[in-house]
Amino acid sequence: MNRNLLQVESLELYREDHLIFSDISFQIESGDHLVIRGQNGSGKTSLIRTICGLTQADKGKVLWNEASIDESLFNYYEQLSYLGHKNGLIPELTLDENLNYGLDQTDKDGKDQVINGFRLTDLKHSLIQNLSNGESRKTALSRVVSSKKPLWVLDEPYANLDSDSISYLNNCIGDHINTGGIVITSTNRDDSIATKTTELLIGS
Amino acid sequence: MNRNLLQVESLELYREDHLIFSDISFQIESGDHLVIRGQNGSGKTSLIRTICGLTQADKGKVLWNEASIDESLFNYYEQLSYLGHKNGLIPELTLDENLNYGLDQTDKDGKDQVINGFRLTDLKHSLIQNLSNGESRKTALSRVVSSKKPLWVLDEPYANLDSDSISYLNNCIGDHINTGGIVITSTNRDDSIATKTTELLIGS
Amino acid sequence: MLPRHRRFLGICLVLLTVGLASFFILKSFQDNLLYYLTPSEVIAGKAPEDREFRIGGLVVTGSFFRQTGSLTSQFVLTDGSASIEVSYKGILPDLFREGQGIIARGKFNSANLFIASEVLAKHDENYMPPEIHAMETSLE
Amino acid sequence: MNFKRIYKYGSPPNYFRLCLKYENWFTVPGFLLIIIGCYGGLFLAPPDYQMGDAFRIIYFHVPSAYLSMSAYAYMALAALVGIVWRSNVAFSVAKSIAPFGASFTFLALVTGMLWGKPMWGTAWVWDARLTSEFILLLLYLGYMLLHASIREQKKADRAASVLAIVGVINLPIIHYSVVWWNTLHQASTISKLSSPSIAGEMLWPLLVMIFGYGFFFWGVICRAGATELLKREKRSNWVKEYVEEHQS
Amino acid sequence: MNIYLKIFVREIKVSMKRWSDILTGVIMFVLVALIFPLTVGSDQMFLIKIIGPVMLLSALLASLISMQNIFKPDFLNGSLEQLTLSHHSLNGLVLMKILSYWATSSLPLVAVSVFIASTYYVTGTSLIAVVITVLLASTTLVNITALAAALTLSVRYPGALMTLILFPLSLPILIFGSKAIEYSIVGIDSSGPFYFLTGMMLLSFSLGPIATAFAIRISLD
Amino acid sequence: MNIYLKIFVREIKVSMKRWSDILTGVIMFVLVALIFPLTVGSDQMFLIKIIGPVMLLSALLASLISMQNIFKPDFLNGSLEQLTLSHHSLNGLVLMKILSYWATSSLPLVAVSVFIASTYYVTGTSLIAVVITVLLASTTLVNITALAAALTLSVRYPGALMTLILFPLSLPILIFGSKAIEYSIVGIDSSGPFYFLTGMMLLSFSLGPIATAFAIRISLD
Ligand code: HEM
Ligand SMILES: Nc1ncnc2c1ncn2[C@@H]1O[C@H](COP(=O)(O)OP(=O)(O)OP(=O)(O)O)[C@@H](O)[C@H]1O
Ligand SMILES: Nc1ncnc2c1ncn2[C@@H]1O[C@H](COP(=O)(O)OP(=O)(O)OP(=O)(O)O)[C@@H](O)[C@H]1O
Ligand SMILES: [Mg+2]
Ligand SMILES: [Mg+2]
């Protein structure tokens, strides 16, 4: 993988006159895992959505490989895989269909391996609407992990996962950053995350 | 509070020819906190919904104070406060309106105290749709905590909460069982829960 | 294909379709999207049978007549080349007078008389004081 | 084009200052012109050879009709600028135009109906001109409602702007309806520039009224747009300074 | 497989699972069309007079009802976010979604319109005219409805706004569609309305998805 | 405050926030009513002939559109679960919900129908007949639509039931409603259809909420 660089410069966001965050700047590059840590309502989700270009910041900008993402959205999105609080899965389709009909390149072997790692193989042909909470979350995570995109942005990936799944996810993240990927996750606990991480504390 | 007794007798549930759980029996009474522990997809949610009478079991029954809940649904529901994976809040109403127009008796002081405990006081007049994930979860929990019903059934209450909120919730649960309440929660982690608990392990 | 090329292709496609669309829409305006038909079109057989439709034209000067004490009036409509006899029972609009453009809705009876169920006056785009109008008409 | 200049004059504080400064340059002449136009139209102009005095509705109908359309064009233009340059100024102008545009459309419809009842013999027919003008009113209403029902300001601006821009397609339809279709509504009188088919002494009050409406409209928009802008920019320094200045 | 084709296939699959929506559209169509002969009586002259508006009205309602949900579920379950964050052209993806809706909701209508028209005593070339009109009009309406749906995505209960936006944009289609049917049944030259309908169809297909995609981006903000 | 009253008030409040849905019904009503004079022309004889079906059809569509969302959002956000788990009578709670929808969506229609009827040249006692018909019919339709909505809540009971419920149940209302209007305009004794409508209204109010509550319980399983 090429070396990549994500820069965030003095972001500021208001929602209906209410300041969510201000003056957030950081810079991460290939091999980094940034954990955004903060209490409930501290603005983690809002920050993540801004970094992904879903929300327009009131001030500041996000740069991907030194180009503002607003100007090179396609290039940016070609490299970005995002998972928010919502899983982005279609409940009427099966797990397998959801992964196959996704928007990213699919690589059958890699995908099967991830599904297996999350122990979802038996559920491959179950409809998403019949899966348990954690199972659908893991499906959505499988999509990200098997996407082959360098930048992963995950909003609270650990909530609702059992301990085996957490450690498998941590393995995946570890592998990813070791091969030059970048990962951003958010959490509101003080639990320790396995891989070497940078931390961004937001909120008071 | 009167002493209450919840008995579960050899429950068994199938979903589309797939056995979710079988032969689950336990008995808890005033002062107990039952933690249902299991991995993702082990059937915690299904069990909880069966205990609440939302899902019909294929075998076995649930007894509340020695009467089958199917036969005395009203009596049972008069004592039950439930929180599932979904919060059950109306997004167009404010936090306060959601609590006031809920279905349970409201006791203004108690409610305000809980809201304060979860540090939601500032958000009292925000619409639910504008709250963050954890904030709406805490609102839903406040509804249960301030409901004054003896039996609380909470499905993964800890996911998405920050540590302060978790410890406040644990306080509330502790108070509740000390005054003769019964609490059932589910979790898929090995994290320790503050109060004295009984455990039910499900899944392999 | 590079995103740039794809984008270019997309833009071309859109422009092409918009062009084609404008062609069709403009073409439709040349055809009959009429609120009313002119007498010559009616004579040429463009009018529907057994069905109400609208004719527009000028009231031929001197053609108007009404039986005293009756609401039924009769007049001839023309567009210069063809004319049609119209009968109408009801109150006429203020602007109705000979030489004025009007629109009548109705259908032909067996005697080929156009029985109007509604008569509207169509004002033209000229505005002038009476004196000038008198001058202009006398010049003609 | 020199974008620097656009940025300079399009910056909120500059725009705000310009608005306050020139507001009266529009409202006052607009007011005067309307008074003169009313007097000229109602008393000086001779009656029409056919319609008599009833034709004087023209002095209210035509200006409102013109303004209803041009206001929509300005609104859509502002919306476009807003979307392309993410300009708060443009969005506030667009937003403040909508209610006035809607009122003028309503006025055009009402005066037209008042006029149509005696002249045509009916207040309303569904011909192309009348229908398309009615659609214009709906478009204004749609813009306002859409804006009102999205709580997030930025989002509301942009979503409503899309609607405004899509609706522009209606403007040529209104204007050319009388050419493309045989409508009950008359064809153009003054907007065919070569030779207006209206006598001079009837025309001048009409022109005066048209300009009066236009000036007045811009005056009002200056004020409304500036107020809107102040509301939106209330967090910025220049507004804080402005407010402090005017409180002391 | 080409990504756009893939999304098209996926959406068709999903629509098939949501067939209740499709069926509702068809039922609406039938209901509106049947109510007049059932209540007013089957006087042929009268039926021929109203078939134009009835057909167009049914088409509008059917597309309104079956398209209300074109983006909303995806918006709620987060897959619209994923669509927006893909590096493929959002315009193209949206077009595919619209096309799949068109295939599963408009095409059945066109088929049904044949039967309806026959119960209205329309036959021969007029029948073909009716079918073509329904096809052109419903295709245009699909695009307009999609735009209205996207614009009102972030409004939680978008019904009214959607209708209010839909109304002015679809009125010309309703009027010219009715005219096209009327003219061809009565025997007047109906090429004018047909040209107009075709033009609007093309216009809606070229500009509609772009505006819709933009509106989607906005509502996710 | 009595719990049922409380829920009624809450639902009215929510409806007010969802005012868009209310408006949709009204706009739908106006749209359907306008399209005929717009395309066929405003011939008085013709308009009086079609006002019956037009009114009933509009009422059906309006209630369909504004009621589609009566349970779905609550189902998705989990508050329907909470409703079911309360120790109050679910039938009663559902009745309150239906009543609040009736108040905010049917009553405006009744008001609008007065204006529509006058543009269709209906006056005097016929006007009153129209208003009463719309009132009775839309009240019945509210109950039927609620049932259909509840049945279609769960994915496992899809559109087929909607067809089975809505179509046959509303057809009699449409037919007898149109007859009631027609008879009273033409001057025939219209008490027959009115008795029928009243009967259906009472029936739907007594059995509708029970069936609806039951359907909700099923779909939550
Ligand atoms: C409800 C009824 C009416 C509506 C909605 C209506 C609408 C309009 C509109 C939108 C315009 C501006 C057209 C443009 O700028 O291209 C206009 C212009 C005009 N209208 Fe009307 N109108 C109505 C009735 C009437 C009547 C009854 C008369 C006179 C008998 C009339 C006379 C005029 C005149 C003289 C113009 C100026 C034409 C020009 O020079 O461009 N209108 N009307
Ligand atoms: N549209 C909005 N209008 C008003 N306030 C909003 C809006 N969206 C978010 N907020 C507020 O912004 C704050 C931050 O929200 P955000 O979802 O980013 O928090 P978070 O850190 O992700 O929290 P959690 O851990 O609970 O997910 C919250 O207090 C929320 O109430
Ligand atoms: N309707 C259904 N049809 C088929 N299988 C189902 C259905 N509902 C649930 N299941 C299956 O039952 C199992 C248990 O689901 P449940 O939601 O109870 O798990 P859980 O323990 O709550 O998991 P989590 O920790 O992820 O919330 C899952 O494997 C799920 O796929
Ligand atoms: Mg969050
Ligand atoms: Mg669970």
- Give helix and strand order of chain D, one letter per element, not per position: HHHHHHHHH
Q: How much of the residues of chain D is beta strand, in percent?
A: under 5%
Bound small molecules, deduplicated? protoporphyrin IX containing FE, adenosine-5'-triphosphate, magnesium ion
Give the low-pLDDT segments of chain A: none
Task: State the helix count of chain A.
Answer: 6
Helix content of chain D: over 70%
Report the CATH topology name of the domain at 5-90 and 148-201 in chain A: Rossmann fold
Order of strands, main sheet of chain A, comes to: 6-7-8-3-9
Strand content range of chain A:
25-35%
Any idea of the CATH class of the domain at 5-90 and 148-201 in chain A?
A: Alpha Beta
Our count of helices of chain D gives 9
The CATH fourth-level homologous superfamily of the domain at 5-90 and 148-201 in chain A: P-loop containing nucleotide triphosphate hydrolases
Instruction: Report the largest inter-chain contact.
Output: E-F, 44 and 50 residues
Mean pLDDT of chain D: 84
Reading the helices and strands of chain A in chain order gives EEEHEEHEHHHEHEE
Radius of gyration of chain D: 20 Å
Q: What do these coordinates show?
A:
The complex is a heterohexamer, with 2 copies of chain A (204 residues), 1 copy of chain C (140 residues), 1 copy of chain D (248 residues) and 2 copies of chain E (221 residues). Chain A has 204 residues and is an alpha/beta fold. Chain A has a domain of 140 residues: Rossmann fold. Chain A is built from 6 helices and 9 strands, in the order βββαββαβαααβαββ. In chain A, β4 and β5 form a beta hairpin. The longest helix of chain A is centred in the last third of the chain and has 16 residues. The model of chain A has no long low-confidence stretch (mean pLDDT 86). By secondary structure, chain C is an alpha+beta fold. Chain C folds into 2 domains: 32 residues; 86 residues, Nucleic acid-binding proteins (OB fold (Dihydrolipoamide Acetyltransferase, E2P), Beta Barrel), CATH 2.40.50. Chain C has 3 helices and 6 strands, in the order ααββββββα. Chain C has a 5-stranded mixed barrel. In chain C, 26% of the residues are buried. Chain D has one domain. Chain D has 9 helices and no strands. By secondary structure, chain E is mainly alpha-helical. Chain E has one domain. The longest helix of chain E is centred in the middle third of the chain and has 30 residues. Chain E is elongated, with a radius of gyration of 18 Å. The two termini of chain E are 31 Å apart. Bound molecules: protoporphyrin IX containing FE, adenosine-5'-triphosphate (ATP) (2 copies) and magnesium ion (2 copies). One adenosine-5'-triphosphate sits at the interface of chains A and B. One adenosine-5'-triphosphate (ATP) sits at the interface of chains B and A.
